[in-house]
């Protein structure tokens, strides 16, 4: 029970962090039809900006400043990058974001180097929040979940209860009508892209010190975010939320299970030919296969339901 509860809380915190990342990517895809390959790079920039800012003014100002700076960079990217190449089609947009991801990574190398930076959990949150049997659960994990839930509630309220949210939703489905009513749809696109980048930056601020802040963090988390978006359904925020929790649980629980097919068959009394050429496959444990499990889930989803859990359009 102790193992289950601790792992469940860890999977929840990780899943909510994934949703903070995937929600921005989902919004951008819903409005512009572009899968932003540089989205995880904004996550990395959020972590590095927070590290740099916290060295001067502390963690709490960095929690606000870093996402705003990343949002500004996102707005510039959309205005002077994506909007310029939009007339050449989605392939050009994809190539632009793909190249941008490499440029951001190289800039990070030039400024902060290739080694991890000492971006640490703030002392005020570096304590045990509560105990689960003999396990002390860190307060910062609870803080991560609270920030993620607050972001989720704020995003829902903005999209469903405010005028700008209504304009954004209308721009998704009827941009010409919104333009005819006097609203500047390109500006709405820019604000949505900036908002998506800000969400990625915020995820970097609270996730960079919980895990590790280094130049490879964008690559490591970027592929998982795309798995979440595809699994949940392209353009569906609800699907991205459910998929984030599922993928978070799969990754968190699987690394703790040291069981293989061979041991499972032995438990239920099935004998396996140990001289078979498949012997090494039977010995692979769930923990060893953990990194590939999300991708297997994505492939299975694409086979069974190409639109994802709650998707309304195919990528």
Q: Which residue ranges are poorly predicted, with pLDDT under 50 across at least 5 consecutive positions?
A: none
| Rg calc | 21 Å
User: What's the level 1 CATH class?
Assistant: Mainly Alpha
General form: globular
Q: What separation lies between the terminal Cα atoms?
A: 40 Å
**Major beta sheet, strand line-up:** 1-2
The biggest beta sheet reads: 2 strands, antiparallel
Number of helices: 14
Portion of residues in beta strands equals: under 5%
Output the structural class: mainly alpha
Q: Judging by the overall fold, what is the CATH architecture?
A: Orthogonal Bundle
Strands, count: 2
> How many separate structural domains?
1
State the share of residues found in helices, binned by percent: over 70%
